[in-house]
Amino acid sequence: MIVIPIKEEVDIVRVRTVVRSMARDIGFGLVDQTRISTAVSELARNAFLYAGEGEAHIEELTNPHKGIRITFIDHGPGIEDIELAMKDGWSSSGNMGKGLPGSKRLSDYMEISSKPAQGTTVIIEKWLSV
Amino acid sequence: MRRTTRDSIIPILKLGEFLLVSIQIDLHDRMAEQLQQDILERISQTQARGVLIDISALEMVDSFIGRILADTARMAATLDAEIVIVGMHPAVAITLVELGFPLGDVKTALNLDEGYTLLEELLKEREMGARIQQEEESTEESNDSDSD
Prior knowledge:
The complex is a heterodimer.
Chain A: E1 2-6, H1 9-26, H2 30-51, E2 54-61, E3 67-74, H3 82-85, H4 99-106, E4 109-115, E5 119-127
Helix pairs in contact in A: 1-2, 2-4
Chain B: E1 12-15, E2 18-22, H1 29-46, E3 50-54, H2 63-78, E4 82-86, H3 90-99, E5 107-109, H4 112-147
Parallel strand pairs in B: 2-3, 3-4, 4-5
Antiparallel strand pairs in B: 1-2
């Protein structure tokens, strides 16, 4: 597992670069590499914008799905209403609200857990189709 | 091809009455914002009438970069310049639409050659539009003076 701290804007680029190269090594095609690196770019930016900082944990999946999992952990203000945050076009920071719903569409699995004032954890996975 | 000292890492080249910007590195957010500002300043300095932005080296365009590109095109329009984005990878186009961020009314072309032709056509159309409008206005004026 690779852990990348997200503390500055350049770290968003680092996360998507590392994820892309791991996705390529795992065997994802060009479009899936692009989907997953775009999704993590959105999520890394969310952590940076809303929480000020966070971490991305990147790991390879083998069972039951071969693929990649990225976990974003931050200790920011948390998301009050996850359902609302998942709606297209909604955003509390005014950045057009594509982050969460868009990232979900680009991945095969997404899980969000959040507690107000404690932080947010977002897990996304992309699976290699067999 | 003069460059000012304030230019960011991404060179903005002058090509006749157009500008050419080729993004060769993965942009972090502030660099993208800086590039937007630089492009607009160069348009105003050089009175360029069109800008070609080559993104063929970009492996992904997320909602932030997408918004910067779309905003830059709108801002350039207010400076009377057209922007054409060229060279977007098919994988990037697919991802942008799935993300929910189609570039909308931003003009795009497959490559530099086609982008250049498109810019020339857009400017020609605009000139014709302006001429027709002028003619209409002058006819209206002469009609007005006839009725006096």
